Amino acid sequence: MPYLAVIGLSVLCIVHLMRNGRNPIWLSALIFLPVAGPLAYFFVEILPGLGGNRHVRAAKSNVVALMDPERELRAARDALDLADTAANRLHVAEALAALGRHDEAIPLYRESIRMTAGEPDLRTQGKLAASLYETGQGAETLALLDAIPEPAGQSEKDSRALLRAKALEHLGRNAEALAIYEDIVTRITGEEARCRYAALLLAEGWDRRATAVLEEVESRMKRLDRTQRAADADMYRWASETLARLRGQA
Fold first, then answer.
1. Would residue 207 count as lying in a domain?
2. What angle do CA 27, 30, 31 make, to 5 degrees?
3. For residues 194 and 165, what is the distance between their CA atoms, to the nearest angstrom?
4. Helix residue spans in 33-101 (DSSP H)
5. Domains in the chain, number
6. pLDDT digits (tens, 9 = 90+) for 161-194
7. CA distances, 160 to each of 120, 126, 129, 157, 243 (Å)
8. What phi and psi, each to the nearest 5 degrees, are found at residue 39?
9. Residue 27 sits in which domain range?
10. Is 196 exposed, middle or buried (0-12, 13-18, 19+ CB in 10 A)?
11. How many CB atoms lie within 10 A of CB 181?
12. One domain, residues 137 and 73
């Protein structure tokens, strides 16, 4: 039955393509990607015409990003070619960082900051600090975080604190990193802080404390559905496997 459904969706998409004159490049995807192609075509070309809402727009955005991950980067570079401004350099840097190309993003962040009149934007400096960390430049990350003012909102303060803790951990300053993780885990969204806290506790030999943190991750995970868990899927997988190992050793 699922096979017949896939065939039916493929036929529907091909008919829609021919009748509505959509981009012919879709035809290759529909033929050679018998599952992903029709699903992508349905979300991008058919579903929006059925009365799309914000969920439809989000789904379309996700599919487009999956099918063409460098689309935002190309658009940002096109804008920079038309106008070499601080904002356009920043957009290219953000697109590169989103693709994990932090080494290419760093000089563009720096150029955007240099070109900005007056005081540089704190968020841009924070993004530069994050890319510095991602390229293994822990000392430079801390130096930049120390040089820029503290954010006003608690959420941004906690995000900045998480980055500081990661940089400290990278430099082997584990006691300082542990103190920050312990402070922010009850407030910050997502599971990165908890999992990093638990991993560092394990590295320091604090198995019981790590188990308690991971049990909190497990409890939170059980209250979420599959869609909600997707953003932190790797963290939840690591937490579950590590917790099972710790319980097996008890």
1. no
2. 85
3. 12
4. 36-41, 54-67, 71-82, 86-98
5. 2
6. 999 999 999 999 999 999 999 999 989 888 999 9
7. 17, 7, 9, 5, 28
8. -65, -45
9. 2-67
10. buried
11. 27
12. yes
Rg (CA), the chain: 23
pTM of the model: 0.73
Mean pLDDT across 192-209: 95
Above pLDDT 70, what percent of the chain? 85
pLDDT at 1: 40
Taking the C-alpha atoms of residue 192 and residue 170, their distance in angstroms, rounded to an integer, is: 15
For the chain, helix, strand, coil in percent to 5 are 80, 0, 20
Euclidean distance between the first and final Cα of the chain, in Å?
46
| Residue 12 CA: distances (Å) to CA of 56, 64, 97, 119 | 19, 20, 37, 55
* Whether residue 82 sits in one domain with residue 62: no
Q: Is 151 left (phi over 0), alpha (psi -120 to 50) or beta?
A: beta
Instruction: Identify whether residues 85 and 115 lie together within a single domain.
Output: yes
Please indicate, yes or no, whether residues 85 and 140 belong to a single structural domain of this protein.
yes
- Give yes or no: residues 58 and 80 share one domain: no
Decide if 80 contacts 65 (C-beta within 8 A): no
Q: What is the pLDDT of residues 61-87, one digit of tens each?
A: 555 555 667 888 999 999 999 999 999
pLDDT at residue 250 in the model: 66
How does the average pLDDT of the chain come out, rounded? 85
Q: Is residue 221 part of a domain?
A: no
* Residues, the chain: 250
Domain boundary (145, 163, 178) is at 145
